[in-house]
Amino acid sequence: MHATLPLLQATAFPALRRDRLTTLQVNLGYRCNQSCVHCHVNAGPNRTEMMDTEDLALVTQVIEARGIETLDLTGGAPELHPAFREVVRSARAQGVKVIDRCNLTILFEPGHEDLGQFLAEQQVEVVASLPCYSLENVDKQRGKGTFDKSIAALQQLNALGYGKPGTGLVLNLVYNPQGPSLPPDQVKLQADYKRELFDHFGIVFNELYALANMPIQRFGSMLISKGQFNTYMKLLKTNYQQDNLAGVMCRSLVSVDWQGYLYDCDFNQQLGLALPGASLPARPHLRDLLKTNPAGDPVRVADHCYGCTAGQGSSCGGALHG
């Protein structure tokens, strides 16, 4: 796989500093039941990396020490970690909002048949990947049969109350472009998703997040192989919007890798760009957050940051402006 970091480090991206830390985004491991073309984590069925018991315990301690409001669980497929449910229960007992970044097909993996019921009982917010509302496009990006399983999973979640008014069970979907292009207008695309999914499958959901593909890991390597890397970077830079800087996720979120090390965002994690800061060691770890507040520290930036600030903007919560 082609390395993209050498192509990203020289940058004119504006300097950023952190605000109050409210969200801990924890990557529980790289194992996944899918292997997607756009995946910036390079996750897949053959990955074995998983967070250990000691670092899982630190997650709970940091939530209390730093007054964390949201625990955002990701992977790979975070549900494949043997302690996934224990982590969720612990965080919910602390009164913390929990987000599960779910690929939907995990609901049909052996041993996970009751996963939907568990998520509903714990009132976990589900952020589910569905790169398109058509079978052809989803299966092209995620593998044959993925679309049908994804639809069945969404119907199962709806039956449990997800996405329906008055239940408190939030179901948000995630869209990624098929290739090196910016996502379309999120508001208009959400209307299309809601219409098509309801008319054809009776599916309802809360919001659609339209995310830009990052020029790193598997997707970045593909761009290099096809001679499209520089063209894509030019697209991101040409569409840079300064107003998006105020809402980028790295100002209020810390990303934690499966070994407990800290980064400004999930993308910096995959590039090995550690969380900076005068009060932190060179490679900060979860245990450092027990005694150190990163508010006011600089954010480590590189050229891939244009992916979060191009056009309508892109973050873990979707577009930064309508």
Describe it for me?
32% of the residues lie in helices and 11% in strands. It is of the alpha/beta class and 322 residues long. It has a single domain (5-309), classed as TIM Barrel (Alpha-Beta Barrel). Strands 6-5-4-3-2-1-7-8 form an 8-stranded mixed beta sheet. Strand 1, helix 2 (53-66) and strand 2 (70-74) form a beta-alpha-beta unit.
Largest sheet: 8 strands, mixed
Architecture per CATH nomenclature, i.e. the level-2 architecture? Alpha-Beta Barrel
Order of helices and strands: HEHEHEHEHHEHEHHEEHH
Query: End-to-end span in angstroms?
Result: 35 Å
What is the CATH first-level class name?
Alpha Beta
Structural class: alpha/beta
Helicity range of the residues?
A: 25-40%
What number of structural domains do the residues give? 1
Spans of at least 5 consecutive residues with low confidence: none
What percentage of amino acids are in beta strands? 5-15%
Count helical runs: 11
CATH names the topology as: TIM Barrel
Which geometry do the CA atoms define?
Answer: globular
Average pLDDT works out at 89
Give the strand order of the largest sheet, numbering strands 1, 2, ... along the chain.
6-5-4-3-2-1-7-8
Radius of gyration: 19 Å
- How many strands appear in the DSSP assignment? 8
